[in-house]
Design a protein that fits this description.
The protein is an alpha/beta fold. It has a domain of 65 residues.
């Protein structure tokens, strides 16, 4: 049974995480939506929220959902969470904002 969700709770809210599936390199990379290396743009052979010949960019509401998707659908690829945005590290809550 699938437990992961690629749908956002609020249609106006930006996705929290992007999962870059790259078939030519056999690498799957997870990014936060504000990461400088996150660029979910469609191309001729790579789509957004759909996999094509070279892979695709998939949006998820949580890092856990992305990890579950990876384990179920892309486990034969190399899993590399981004070293810049560190999507698996919890961000501290800001007080007084």
């Amino acid at each position: 049974m699938q437990r992961y969700s690629m749908e956002m709770d609020d249609e106006t809210k930006k996705p929290s995480f992007w999962f870059n599936v790259d078939y030519p390199t056999n690498i799957v990379k997870l990014h936060r939506d504000n990461c400088i290396h996150c660029s979910p743009e469609p191309s001729k052979f790579k789509k957004v929220n759909r996999l094509d010949r070279n892979g695709g960019w998939m949006e998820f509401s949580s890092a856990q959902d992305a990890k579950e998707y990876y384990e179920e659908k892309e486990a034969d690829k190399v899993w590399l969470p981004c070293k810049v945005c560190k999507p698996l590290v919890s961000k501290p809550k800001r007080h007084g904002s």
